[in-house]
């Protein structure tokens, strides 16, 4: 199921409550798709990055090769909000200085320096980088996997492209009215407008921004292209949060393509874990009862932390075992994974 999704969709967001194993599942999906011949871009949007830790390497805001197979590979990125804030404001400053008379440059720069720390700057920088990587990923990779921050942060980010595209469209409409008024004045009094060239540049910048966010919104709401994989564990709070995520994603028009219940306790490893598994079963039934149409798989509780390529290979093999149950897959400290629900809807 998950590997079918990774083969059919071009973009997968992997999200859920903090600490449920989102990064491990996202990495295993990326690795499995690469072993199947895919070119994969794996992006962490979480401010508290864990991607480099799991791949046992140092990552940055630039794509770096973390896995190579015979035909496929995985490039990974950890979005650096501060680097993107600096880059964004450098570009804004360059544009403003062209538009403003020199006597205002110092005060404008002071305003921009202050704006770097304003609420929303961090989110804006991350969103700009996500939009860039999404565009690059669609053009140059077979699959883009976003390892996202805990759900509240991610849901807010996913709601922004539509809002910002609309806001920029309103700004452009306002500029159009101003431009028509200025043109009428120039027609009455004659002469050249020294700000016309700057206005044209500003318009081009706004149009590019509007189009970038509009494209992002179109991509993430196209179920033939994009799916959201929710990772959770079979406990009351994570399950409740997962159900809330589904409701909000549906409100945003984003397809919930699969549920992954991670770290299921084994039934045959002692009384403690067997009783724990019974409690987990009640949570699992609540999840399935509310989301009967969303495919769900279970992954077992493993005996050690997932760090390094070899550990991710084992997790990828576990995921593969869901689609090919006869292979069994390597199981450590738990049962083989289980699949529930209907097959995913066709792309």
TrEMBL record:
Residues 337-347 have a biased composition (Basic residues). Residues 324-347 are annotated as: Disordered. Residues 10-318 form the ArsA/GET3 Anion-transporting ATPase-like domain. InterPro entries: ArsA/GET3_ATPase-like, ATPase_ArsA/GET3, P-loop_NTPase. Residues 325-336 have a biased composition (Low complexity). GO terms for molecular function: ATP binding; ATP hydrolysis activity. SUPFAM superfamilies: P-loop containing nucleoside triphosphate hydrolases. Belongs to the arsA ATPase family. This is Arsenite-transporting ATPase. It comes from Cryobacterium roopkundense.
């Amino acid at each position: 199921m998950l590997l079918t999704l990774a083969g059919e969709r071009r973009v997968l967001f992997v999200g859920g409550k903090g600490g449920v194993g989102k990064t491990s599942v996202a990495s295993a999906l990326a690795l499995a798709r690469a072993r199947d011949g895919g070119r994969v871009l794996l992006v962490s949007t979480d401010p508290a990055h864990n991607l480099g830790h799991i791949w046992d390497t140092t990552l940055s805001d630039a794509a770096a090769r973390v896995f190579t197979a015979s035909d496929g590979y995985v490039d990974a990125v950890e979005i650096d909000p501060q680097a993107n804030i600096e880059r964004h404001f450098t570009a804004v400053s360059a544009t403003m200085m062209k538009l403003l008379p020199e006597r205002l440059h110092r005060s404008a720069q002071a305003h921009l320096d202050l704006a770097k720390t304003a609420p929303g700057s961090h989110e804006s920088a991350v969103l700009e980088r996500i939009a860039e990587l999404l565009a690059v990923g669609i053009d140059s990779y077979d699959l883009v996997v976003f390892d996202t921050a805990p759900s509240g942060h991610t849901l807010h980010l996913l709601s922004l492209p539509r809002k910002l595209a609309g806001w920029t469209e309103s700004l452009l409409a306002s500029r159009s009215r101003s431009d028509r008024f200025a043109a009428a004045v120039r027609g009455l009094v004659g002469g050249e407008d020294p700000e016309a060239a700057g206005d044209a540049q500003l318009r081009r910048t706004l149009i590019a921004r509007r189009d970038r966010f509009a494209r992002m919104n179109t991509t993430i709401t196209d179920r033939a292209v994009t799916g959201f994989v929710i990772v959770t564990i079979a406990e009351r709070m994570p399950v409740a949060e997962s159900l809330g995520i589904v409701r909000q994603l549906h409100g945003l028009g984003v397809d919930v393509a699969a549920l992954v219940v991670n770290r299921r306790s084994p039934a045959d490893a002692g009384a403690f874990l067997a009783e724990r598994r019974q409690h987990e079963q009640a949570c699992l039934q609540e999840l399935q009862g509310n989301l009967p149409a969303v495919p769900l798989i279970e992954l077992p509780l493993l005996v050690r932390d997932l760090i390094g390529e070899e550990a991710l290979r084992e997790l990828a093999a576990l995921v593969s075992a869901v689609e090919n149950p006869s292979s069994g897959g390597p199981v450590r400290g738990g049962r083989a994974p289980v699949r529930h629900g209907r097959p995913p809807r066709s792309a």
